[in-house]
# Entry
Amino acid sequence: MNKSGPLNCRLGIPGLGTSCALAAVLAFAASAVMAAESDLTELSLSDLLEIKVVSVSKRAEPLARAAAAIHVITGEELRRSGSRSIAEALRLVPGMNVARRNSNEYAISARGFQNTGDKLQVLIDGRSVYTPLTSTVFWDVLDTDLDSIDRIEVIRGPGATVWGANAVNGVINVITRSSADAVGASWESAVGSEERAAGSLRASSTVRDLGHVRFYAKARERDPSAMADGSESFDGQRMVQGGLRSDWDLAPDQALTVSGDLYSARSRSAGQQSAQVDTAASGANLNSRWAWDLSASSRLSATLSFDHYRRDIPELFREERDTYDLGIQHELGLGELHELTYGIGYRYSHDTTGGPPLAVIFSPPSRSLKTLSVFVQDQIRLSDNLIWTLGSKFEHNDVSGEELQPGTRIGWALAPDWFTWAAVSRAVRTPNRLDHDFAIYCPPPDGFPGFCEPDTTLAVGNRGFDSEKLTAYEWGLRHTQGLRWSADLALFYNDYRDLRSVESNGSGGFSLENQLKGRGRGGEITLAWHPLEGLDALLSYSFLDLDIRRQSTSTDRQSAATLEGGSPRHQAGLRLYYQPREQWSADAFLRYVSRLRQTADPGANNVDTSVPAYAELNLRLAWRPNIQLEWFLRGENLLDDQHPEYGPADTRGELERGVQVGVIWTWL
Amino acid sequence: VAVKARHRRLATGARLLAGLLLWLLAGPAPAESALELKVKAAFLFNFARYTTWPAEKFNGPADPIRICVLEPDAFGEVLEATFKGKTIESRPLLVFRATSATALRGCHIVYATSSRAAQLESAFVELAGASTLTVHDFERTLSGGVVRFFIENSKVRFEINALAAEREKLVLNPKLLGLAITVRK
# Structure
């Protein structure tokens, strides 16, 4: 937007009076419509720069040639969906399983294992954000300035060959825009019934001839969800966050990016009425990335990041963690045939958790985890239409020792509009602190009746716990019909070994062991349709069949059923983006999620942990009277007064219908 | 008779449906893809208008401005249609195509598109020193390319590599520079 020229009165339509801005906007809309027919060389350069040329769903060309089940949400799609968080935005990805346990907490996965949520690699600008505590992501506080997101790339299926441990069922890569992209400032504020209040401000500027910098700050307040009987669940959240990104041109062939974020949030678990039990979460991170083009076919990059967070749940749990991450990568083209990528990474993560009298404890309370990894991948151009990729990651970590994660992919362009790919890969989820060190402290005076005596500690973690392993077989097919239609099909067969089970040790205690195995099979199909200028539709359907079995020595009678029943068998989504004219846009997102049979261990009381199938609709209507101003009206979960998405019926928060109105101001 | 009528209706319905499918599948690409090409062609026209080449790049005052495309390209007839009958300071505009960059050294503007940096860079090396305004649409700045198209907020924008322009002895009008993102690489 920074380079758009001054509003041009020359094109003003006669009779509209003196309002230059209005005339310019109308003329601008008219020019876009007429542009297809008229002689564009008659337009000035600044008018040319204002013509909209692509639809929101148009994919970057290389994507159609990616040998993986990849889907990209563009920044434009993200903004027009009106998603208020990264977790909500992931609902837009076909085949992604996103369920909200209550106002703040999410269960997110791909291709199953939604209840453990521990088989995803999630990165923001290359910085891994899952915690080695549980291998999960604290989705409640995972946020950034959504307006600054360039795109979210999601790979369903293993990506361990490059991304490493935890990239078992999927990789999510959130990529923010360069601060050089847009110079100016914008302010957004909104009020609503569920997303009660939200405000964000961002401003970017050039720094002499040296580079660009962008700052942002945001705050939001979320309304509590509702319990099944309609009573309030008290699980609201307040969060403030700020950060910056700066991009520097060190030399013609070198670029440096430095970014950082700072956040603080307070929220409550569902059903907790007292403010005494507010969960406090805060954190900060600093990242730098340096890239150096050694030659046209050789590129060296290094990343260094630091992340700190703290999470405090009174009476239950406390953790503080510092993580340092260093990565060096070299991309090297060897002739016309080979594109070699190799790299080395080192990660150091140190935590301190709270001990008794908190109930959820880790023994030892403090531990450092070090991971060293090396990866190499070669992309071989067998012919113009056939690309074969093979590679492996070698990893050494403190918990499971050496891990080898090889993979091979082949991509074949059958015709200009047909592409097929296949892959075989191995991936592991390395043991986390929970697997090894988890324990429960039973507080006085009563302990947990029927479970443990007061003032005793039940060790559940097992130092002998090994990695969970996956061998995945995938196949995919893509077809494009000009820009009007495209279809993307991906099928998979996953073979899992050594999955986590909870074994009873005979004396009333438990131990985490690798006594489950199983397979997952299914697929996702996406149809994108662009019938006419200003209208895009995306229809998707995904199927999942998980079959988990316990080994004969296992005593675990619940985990397999929870793994199988905790992810939906069928999911479908329909996204519509409609922009009849430049000033108006209407966007809709309809989703269907089939029934979840069992989302948790029903326990001795046999609590109902199933979740009924549901369909929900989100709508967003936006009006842009001029280039600087946008008003929007947004509705979420419009089809039901309230609906549950995850967890046992007696403790889960149900999501209520929400309406929100807001305005975005942009200064160029 | 009723059955016959129903069959006829079904057959008509099936034909209509098939027709609709054919129209959807085989219809021409929507105007919008052509629009992007048209906008880019119009930009090329403006680049020609706002660039001053060294005098020796022309064989006389009426020598045409040669706007060339390194094949394969997606322009089709768009360039010819855009430049038809146009002149810039009494110079007509001519469109040339070739599969090798060396054959395009006589061109004033060369547009090359590829998803592979190495392929573009090697083309630009072949054009080096020929005072050619090289244009590409790769995802990042290339040291050999003078102008790079990119899409931002669904609009075509361009970046000018000032170092490459100087090296090729091209003088760019401030009007052009003012609307571009300028980099030096």
In short: Chain A touches chain B through 45 residues (CB under 8 Å). Confidence is low (pLDDT under 50) at residues 1-37, 54-61 of chain A. Helices of chain A lie at 20-35, 45-48, 75-81, 86-89, 160-163, 433-437, 559-565.
